[in-house]
Amino acid sequence: MAVATDGTDTYIQSKTPLITSSGDNRMYRRFVLANGLPVTLVSDLDATQSSAAMGVACGSYRDPDELLGLAHLTEHMLFVGGSERYPGLNRLDKFLASHGGEQANAWTSNTATVYFYGVEPSSFNESLQLFSGFFIDPILTPESIGDEINAVNAEYEKDLPQNDRKAQMVLNTRQKQDHPSSRFTIGSTKSLVEDPKVSGTDVFTGMLKYINQCYKSRNLNLAIVSPHSLDELEAMVSELFVQVPVGDKPEPLNLPLPYDPSNLNGFFTMKPVGETRNVRMQWQLATSPYTLSSPADYLAVLVGDEADGSILATLKEDGLALSLESGTDYYEGYTIFQVSVKLTEAGLLRWPEVVSRVKEYIAMVENAGPQESVYETSQMARECAWKYQFSVDPIGYASTLVAREIENMTEAKNLLRPPSAFEYDADLDAAVTTELHTNPFLVLVMDPDTPISPAAGSEEVAADPGSSTRRNPSRRADNPADVDTDMDTDASAETPPEANSDTGATEKAVPSSGTLNGVTVEVEEWFNTPYTFTEFNQTMQDAFGNFTMGSRLHLPAKNEFQCNATDLTLLPKIVEPVLDDLKEKGDHLWHAQDVVFRTPTVVTQTTLLSPLNKQYKLIRSKRRDTANYRIGSVEVELRMRMMADILSDAAKSLVYDAERAGMAVAVTGQSGDLQIHVSGMSDGFILKFRSLLGEIIPSSSGTGLFANTVEQKVRFNELYERAAEKERTRLADNLVLGSLTQGVVVLRQLLKEDEHSDAQVQRAFDVVDADDLAKFMQEFFQDVRIEMIATGNVRHEEAAEYVDYVRVILSPLAGANKLSTSHTEMHYVPATADTTALFSSSETDAKHTDVIVETVNTNPTDDTSAIIAWMHAGPVEPRILALVRLITAMSSEQAFSVLRTTEQLGYIVSLQMVEFNDVAGISIAVQSNRHPRYLSERVGAFLRESHLRTLRDTTDAEFFEFKRSVVDELNRGDSSLFDVSVRVWSTIQSKKSLDDVDFGVSYKVVTALQKLTKEEVLEFFTELTNRCLTVQMVSQSVTDWQNDTMIATTPDAHAGAIIRTDEYFEMLDIPNRID
């Protein structure tokens, strides 16, 4: 290495360059700054954003025992005050909001913390100056720590109902209690305020000590992805980040195994939130090395196989399971291997048999020896993906690079994960398979019918003998997954039954401590989860070893969908898109050959439209003020969803092979249409497409829809029962969705005619039995039209062959008396309610025409409330879209800064643009432990007072910057071929006539946006805030509005009118809580 000695050079150039792919057009440079900070630069000329990510090789494992959650709290704190050079509340986020950026984000895991953001390339250098301050001279004050502890605690409360969190914490109770993986990691008021107060620990001092230990140059690593040249990026980075304080990595933890083998000897029973039925098996593997060629991954592929002869296939045949997942979590020195099986009701009663099936399969794998063909399938998929690197999201790519650096799983040259880094080791595979077969393990059973209850209690009780971080759209978290506030969520909420439906008797509950059938009921401390633990007795151990499957279990056959990287070629560029109107057949092909991403990939979406759904569609009207609302047939919705499940399930063996080879396959029933998505590498794609569609469309899927043999009827009934149980479980789980997600569902039901409540769907099962569904499916395919989108590395002639082939396999299904409906008449377009009528009620206040719908959060384990305020902007047309986009850009960071940071309303605060079919709007969502009427009041004050003043005070220069950043965002275009497909289909679907389809809307929006004046925006915003439909989800445990001590005003001060929910929901079956 060339080390700087004269003070003129600011970095040490890496001796070993990265291994890159010949198909990767990006340029890379890797070096180490003079202060020891590793840097990876990626120059991507196709990137439409610039991104930076900083990784810290410390996570919650470094939390002191007296400050659990400290790593997560520190992550929050770095965003708040800015830096000595650039002070100010949320300084970086404010800059990003006005420069085409995305709000800065971060996540904390056991061993790492990763910070990241994106911004328009022209503003990247200035953004780096703000970002580098996080790690050079951050402003941290004791006064701000209380607010961030509140945010961490709100995040913790949001996660309390999550079954996966609960289950893992219960499993951790068998770990060595001095091992950091056994501890609570999110942080809460208890762990960061109450416990430190008892122990005399100062949280702020502890945080400074933690930063001094972990936030040093050699313990950090930086990744940059941008369209700038490598030399430009190097100049930006080296000058700034060389100032990060010098320091070495902290001493390694050298952790022992978390479980004592003697503690891996029994099963937990836990009552989940909702109707989840699941059995989870967990092993601790000590011999698996921390490498990319881990044999545990090889085993996860085999155990997770879904083809004929697999664990899941045989469990489905026996009516015991709905799905199975297997996977690994890697740690330094050991691996945790898990198998999770989603059970049917019968499977729950026979869960030991399910465990035995998994054990038998693992024994079979051990006896058969290492299967190199399984490794080869994965390796060939890697080779294809490696040779033709797909376009990447700059933010995600930068974050991935720093996370990989922290993992330190391979040599530095293998940072990009070349296929050569994944070496096959037959001896190691055999050793780990034996370890998995012979090692002790734990089992956790989630049983919704167990009488264990989270209710408070103490003494011994008798059981009923008959009983069987990452940041969300608004702030940092410690899990890379988060709450979905997307308005396209597919779920509903209904009131949970309070009594047994058969007897009418209220279910007996066992308090959260005491005993149950002689077994001690424990309560996990942090997630308040009651559970029992029982050691395996000899009878159960014998049962686990009682292998009875014989030849029914077998290893997967050779995968016929394997990708061959040597055969991939790119087509020449042509203009896109092209509509092929196959009028003589009533079908349409929308073909767009890739001219942007230049990857040998094909993305197809085949939509089958049947005029049958026009006949089934029931139109009902009910007068609500001056608005008529039409409700589509709920029976059709249920039939379509279950038909998609059945077709997907019947073809699962072939579909799984395709997915293992790197393809994507999905079957969905929505809006009265059946959609089949197939995408993958273009080599031999037409043959793979034919094979998959021929298996999914029921003429050759073996579902027995169009024959009357006893065997085929039995097969269809089995598929129906699985689909019905899956749907009923979904309905039950929707009862325990978070308050904010429930609010989104209610809003969709108010604004879209094709949305139905779960109560309606549940009642539809009275009509939709197996015979009804079989008849519906047969009639559905008698006369269908094809609407296909084909994008990517595919010629028009070949794309037309896709349509022709689908027509061929549909032909035998056509009925003698086809339903004659033209495509344009038959094409199903979900209508949107006339929301304008909602804002003209004579009952509403003369000044504000708000409509407020208040309903109850049906999840008894979720103590949060939520509101979603949706402001009706108008029809989706260029000027309206331009105004909504610009106001969203000018308001989203302000909403977060005021409502979340300053007023501390709740952990989740987001403002975003939302479209419901042909209606545009802006929504503000808040999830909180405050009363929703108070939240509504504060949101209203923000919109009509403080933010309105902020918009008025915006300078001409600032207004121009906002406009420019939105224009740049619109001009970025699609980020992937999949996005092209989604855009094309959403454009088609939203139009009532093919003549209305316009793929150039974004350009018209840009033109309209460039003409907007500040005065126009202010006028439109004022009108917008007076057309607000607010859904209030009230927690079952929230204090009364009038007695809430946190509320300084009275209901009389509430702007707008509270519309009684019985007027809205009499036909929607949404629970209400208006007194």
Automatic annotation (TrEMBL):
The keyword Zinc applies. GO terms for molecular function: metal ion binding; metallopeptidase activity. Pfam families: Peptidase_M16, Peptidase_M16_C, Peptidase_M16_M, PqqF-like_C_4. Residues 481-491 have a biased composition (Acidic residues). Residues 518-715 form the Peptidase M16 middle/third domain. GO terms for biological process: proteolysis. This is Uncharacterized protein. Residues 453-513 are annotated as: Disordered. Residues 887-985 form the Coenzyme PQQ synthesis protein F-like C-terminal lobe domain. Residues 41-162 form the Peptidase M16 N-terminal domain. Belongs to the peptidase M16 family. The keyword Protease applies. Keywords: Hydrolase, Metal-binding, Metalloprotease, Protease, Zinc. Signal peptide: none annotated. Residues 208-376 form the Peptidase M16 C-terminal domain.
